[in-house]
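Fig. S4 source data, part A: sequence.
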Amino acid sequence: GFSYAGLLALPVMWLMWPEDPGIPGITIAGLAAGLGLLSAAIPYGLDQVVLRMAGPSLFALLQAILPVVAAIIGAIALGQWLTPAEMIGIVLIMAAVALRRN
């Protein structure tokens, strides 16, 4: 997915990047590849830091909350609402993770 983001950002980078980036050997394709790599590596690295700090059980609960955040953003930004079955599914998964934690 992040590789596709890099490819989609390529035209914008092409238009906005100056003629000479001032860094020898850097091309637009290299910048797009770097964007794709960093947009995957940085979140993964932060996840590892949080996992160490919070512990596996709390980290699992935080990961179970991610679909709720995505649903809220989808509802607000895109007007996409979840069906009752999808809402129940998210609640059940969060409850299972929370119960397993104790």
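Fig. S4 source data, part B ends here. The chain has four helices and no strands.
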